[in-house]
Write a structure and sequence with these properties.
This protein has about 300 residues and is an alpha/beta fold. It has helices at about 10-30, 45-60, 75-90, 105-110, 125-130, 140-155, 170-180, 195-200, 250-255, 265-285, and strands at about 5, 35-40, 65-70, 95, 160-165, 185-190, 205-210, 225-230, 235, 240-245, 260. Keywords: Amino-acid biosynthesis, Histidine biosynthesis, Hydrolase, Methionine biosynthesis, Multifunctional enzyme, NADP, One-carbon metabolism, Oxidoreductase, Purine biosynthesis.
């Protein structure tokens, strides 16, 4: 028997479709179009591709896309001045500064300069605190996408044992907070966890977000568990470059009840949830009801 494959591409397409539908309604009823501003500093090839995809998908959902591409030598003060202008621009509802930034910039300072209400990445310290205390927040896109897929697969998550392997501020910690809010019993594990294998084997939901290729072998997975693999790792195998997750897919696929593949699992959901967050931010800014089924 093989696990059910959770198709992130198809799920992301559905989310984008729902965003586009609600953007259309918002425009028709109120004459409002959500706007997303993306700021890229430098010429990192992976970041350029990511920003290009964000812009394309933003326009495809009927939103306004504003791209600001700055040279790598741009001063920190210049970047902060741009963020201040975007904060004040009523046509911009979401602001995203693409990471990583050049070494001469303080990423925390830059991210926390964004208006928390426009922080569609969910990285601002205010949003981190709001999420941790169970209040209304902008939720980081990747954990939000994982939660959406888990809810769609399981329905009610209440009472399930969830193990999140990874403790990053971007995925691990907010993922754990979201699962707690859905009444899971949550364990945050990491590379230094004692007897990590046994901890993983106790999980009804296993979320792997450590950034280490195939760190979690198949026999660490509880039979019938749902595995959400956030890892995207480039490795060399049999003379070819390929992408693998943090979970050893072939082995886990034989044991799990459901699993996200790499590629094609969690990855496509990140941009889809960025668009959902931008729509949510626009609705909040205008005192309108939040979009149904697109928030945490």
């Amino acid at each position: 028997m093989s696990a059910t494959i959770i198709d992130g591409k198809a799920f992301a397409a559905d989310v984008r479709g729902r965003v586009a539908e609600q953007v259309g309604r918002l425009n028709d009823a109120h004459g409002i179009t959500p706007g997303l501003a993306v700021v890229l500093v430098g010429e990192d090839p992976a970041s350029q591709v990511y920003v290009r995809n964000k812009g394309k998908q933003t326009v495809e959902t009927g939103m306004n896309s504003y791209e600001h591409k700055l040279p790598a030598e741009t001063g920190e003060a210049e970047l902060l001045a741009l963020i201040e202008r975007l904060n004040a621009d009523p046509e911009v509802h979401g602001i995203l500064v693409q990471l990583p930034l050049p070494d001469h910039m303080d990423s925390d300072l830059v991210i926390n300069a964004i208006d928390p209400a426009k922080d569609v990445d969910g990285f601002h310290i205010s949003n981190v605190g709001l999420l941790a205390t169970g209040q209304k927040a902008m939720v980081p896109c990747t954990p939000l996408g994982c939660l959406m897929m888990l809810r769609a697969h399981h329905g009610n998550l209440s009472g399930l044992n969830a193990v999140v392997v990874g403790r990053s501020n971007i995925v691990g910690k907010p993922m754990a907070q979201l699962l707690l809010r859905d009444s899971c019993t949550v364990t945050i594990a990491h590379s230094r966890t004692r007897d990590l294998a046994e901890v993983c084997r106790g999980a009804d939901i296993l979320v792997a977000a450590v950034g280490r290729p195939e760190m979690i072998p198949g026999d660490w997975v509880k039979p019938g568990a749902t595995v959400i693999d956030v890892g995207i790792n480039r490795i060399e195998r049999d003379g070819k470059r390929k992408l693998v997750g943090d979970v050893e897919f072939v082995g886990a696929n034989r044991i799990a009840g459901a699993i996200t593949p790499v590629p094609g699992g969690v990855g496509p959901m990140t941009i889809a949830c960025l668009l959902a967050n931008t729509l949510t931010a626009c609705c909040r800014a205008n005192g309108l009801p939040e979009p149904q089924g697109l928030t945490a």
